[in-house]
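queue> pop job 88
queue> type: inverse folding (structure -> sequence)
queue> payload:
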């Protein structure tokens, strides 16, 4: 329903026998329409109606004031009412009302149709009086003149029908402050058994964390309670990610079913479509996939049915390409898992810069609802996913009561919240580089793993010590650096797995905020400081991401802190060569640790230079060997 012209135009349109006025309306640019309303009736008469003698004749009997009063449809309350009445009477499909309006309408000559609305903060006294007259507000000149910079509000009284109407509407909505009231119930989540196979590691097989995640989801999809609620959302590359194994059982959603014979129909893992399919295969459509993630992730509220979206995308095609959509998902309190596959800047070096992602973790840190993890091993993924399920889909029941609004039914304000979970979503980086996935170490620090850091492998006893903080696909290089430091330089290093730089930062910031608000209370040390407080020697942080990612925790690291990262563009060569250029390989980690010891005065600077020359770190064109277990190709 279009509401374009106010009722003052009706008689003119009726008299427009040959369509001259309609032609003027249709051929006038929007910019001119704005200019007309920024002037006066005489200007409109000359520059709009005066362009055609027939239309000029139409308004010869109207005064300039009457010409000026020819409203747009969106400012005619009768037309708006008629449009809504028609919309309410129409059933069977949605109705859209398109109403044409003027920016700043009714605010006077300094505001109406002008682009100064955001720059000008106050209306003049004359503007206020004109506005009062047009809107018929019963406020006297004396009241306005008493303080033109703080004009009075008008309230018709609590018994006025319009106030009663508004109060009743607010009562139906539950109060004056918007809130989300959901009736979805917590899910019965699977126990240890569903996660056990992934926590066992891969034995001697080289497995990328992308494949480890797919294997985990295969177990969860079998669960009778949550399996049917998992919704894989794949914009592209399902086979690359190993998700083609889901096609036969889950099938791809198409409301019309399979309409053609797929090219791979003779394969066991053939492309299968179904009207009851569980997979949303969006094609190369990241924006649509993000919208699907939001729709599925908010179904716990919109439909009272908690669903678990798994949106998996290629590298930076998520937080860079559709970051605004993910912000909208957070704004709508979506829950689910966002999976950044082929993560990192050096793991997919042959496919151009669009796959060399070294910054998505940094972009993710700007989203308040995003819980971002960068796991190195399959057992870490198992714990992260399980905890994510608990936080987003577990929980209990809370009942509340809101005070009734004046003039409304008190019984209508009993609010029952049945909910489970936090309004967050998880971003997990997954890599396509295969290496041996170790079994979960006995007694692994699960609390630290979930908080963002834990000691994965301690070094032997020794006088010279260092600490390697490593994340994601850089873990094999970190472990190799630990060996090289011990064998070549008699330096013993502890290797910490940093599963989330961002979560460590959030926790530390919460401590600082609490200390600022309650300086008389002991808030304790940030978790990262607690973990590293007894560590000896310098700290070297290395990952496949920009230095700014590990730099997020710099101020809470208790000692010499050196960060290594992949700042700059990617390279279309081997992974080891790219890592040497970025200086995130094992040899570079060794040299950085020695540099930290030299800064502390524990070893001579000449020793650091010797190490740089021995490993070729001083020559980025000298291609190094890959760290053990990382020579494999793509997943």
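queue> result:
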């Amino acid at each position: 329903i279009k509401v374009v012209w106010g009722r003052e135009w009706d008689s003119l349109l009726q008299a427009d026998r040959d369509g001259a006025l309609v032609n003027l309306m249709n051929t006038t640019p929007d910019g001119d329409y704005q200019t007309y309303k920024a002037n006066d009736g005489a200007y409109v008469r000359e520059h709009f109606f005066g362009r055609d003698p027939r239309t000029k004749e139409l308004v010869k009997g109207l005064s300039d004031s009457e010409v000026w009063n020819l409203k747009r449809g969106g400012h005619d309350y009768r037309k708006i009412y008629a449009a809504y009445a028609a919309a309410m009477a129409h059933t069977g499909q949605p109705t859209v009302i398109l109403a044409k309006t003027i920016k700043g309408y009714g605010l006077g000559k300094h505001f109406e149709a002008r682009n100064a609305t955001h720059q000008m903060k106050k209306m003049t006294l004359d503007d206020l009086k004109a506005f009062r007259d047009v809107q018929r507000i019963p406020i006297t000149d004396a009241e306005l003149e008493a303080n033109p910079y703080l004009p009075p509000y008008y309230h018709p009284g609590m018994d006025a029908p319009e106030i009663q109407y508004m109060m009743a509407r607010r009562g139906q909505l539950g109060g004056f402050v918007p809130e989300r009231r959901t009736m979805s119930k917590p899910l019965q989540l699977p126990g240890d058994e569903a996660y056990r196979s992934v926590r066992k590691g891969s034995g001697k097989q080289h497995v990328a964390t992308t494949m480890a995640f797919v294997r985990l989801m295969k177990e969860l999809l079998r669960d009778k309670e949550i399996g049917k609620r998992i919704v894989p959302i794949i914009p592209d590359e399902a086979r690359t990610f190993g998700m083609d194994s889901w096609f036969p059982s889950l099938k791809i959603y198409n409301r019309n079913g399979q309409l053609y014979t797929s090219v791979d129909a003779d394969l066991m893992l053939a492309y299968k479509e179904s009207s009851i399919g569980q997979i949303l295969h969006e094609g190369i459509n990241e924006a649509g996939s993000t919208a699907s993630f939001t729709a599925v992730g908010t179904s716990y509220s919109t439909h009272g049915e908690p669903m678990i979206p798994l949106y998996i995308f290629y590298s930076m095609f998520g937080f860079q390409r559709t970051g605004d959509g993910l912000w909208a998902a957070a704004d709508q309190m979506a829950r689910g898992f966002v999976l950044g596959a082929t993560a990192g800047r050096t793991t997919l070096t042959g496919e151009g810069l669009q796959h060399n992602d070294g910054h998505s973790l940094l972009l993710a840190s700007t989203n308040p609802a995003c819980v971002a993890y960068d796991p190195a091993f399959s057992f870490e993924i198992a714990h992260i996913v399980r905890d994510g399920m608990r936080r987003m889909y577990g929980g209990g029941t809370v009942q509340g009561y809101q005070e009734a609004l004046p003039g409304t039914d008190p019984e209508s304000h009993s609010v029952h919240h049945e909910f489970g979970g936090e309004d967050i979503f998880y971003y997990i980086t997954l890599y396509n580089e295969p290496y041996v996935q170790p079994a979960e170490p006995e007694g692994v620090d699960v609390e630290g793993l979930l908080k963002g850091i834990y000691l994965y492998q301690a070094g032997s006893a020794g006088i010279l010590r260092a600490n390697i903080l490593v994340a994601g696909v850089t873990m094999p290089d970190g472990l190799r650096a630990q060996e090289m430091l011990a064998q070549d330089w008699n330096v013993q290093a502890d290797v910490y797995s940093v599963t989330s730089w961002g979560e460590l930062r959030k926790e530390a910031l919460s401590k600082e905020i609490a200390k600022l608000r309650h300086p008389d209370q002991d808030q304790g040390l940030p978790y990262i400081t607690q973990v590293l407080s007894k560590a000896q020697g310098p700290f070297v942080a290395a990952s496949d991401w920009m230095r700014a990612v590990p730099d997020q925790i710099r101020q809470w690291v208790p000692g010499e802190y050196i960060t290594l990262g992949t700042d700059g563009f990617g390279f279309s060569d081997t992974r080891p060569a790219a890592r040497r250029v970025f200086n995130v390989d094992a040899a570079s980690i060794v040299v950085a640790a020695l540099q930290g010891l030299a800064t502390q005065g524990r070893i001579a600077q000449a020793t650091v230079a010797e190490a740089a020359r021995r490993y070729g770190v001083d020559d980025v064109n000298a291609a190094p060997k890959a760290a053990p277990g990382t020579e494999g190709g793509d997943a």
